[in-house]
Design goal:
The chain is about 65% helix and about 0% strand. With about 140 residues, the protein is mainly α. It folds into two domains: about 50 residues; about 70 residues, no CATH class. The longest helix is centred in the first third of the chain and has 21 residues.
Amino acid sequence: MVKYLEKFTPDKRNKDGRTSYCRACRRCLYETSIEQRRKYYQKNREEILKARKMDRPQNKKKYQGYDKNWNSKKVEMLLNSYIKALFIKGTGLLASDVSPEIVEVKREQLRLKRLIKQKGICDENYQEAKGRAFISV
């Protein structure tokens, strides 16, 4: 089968500068791979979970590093899961109760707070308006 060169994505690592599979074939391989992994997981779910549960205590330091890095990234990047956790903490809310609009407003609030802290902008007017201008969590 002959295909046009434009059907192949650029890849600097290969001599001809293109990938060895066309876009359509790569998509097909990707989708079948996902489906195969999903079926394997469904078939062997109990064994996989058991192995993970046994592995975690044995490699505690390794996982602590992963957890610490991931948690700091969530805070730094203001991911939805971090912002929803702020709302849920100490309330009877579920993650599904927090709407995307509220998450966006809270994200902007946190960005503003960080910017103010970073720039050192802090005067009486800010302190006075602080309680009114921001959504409390």
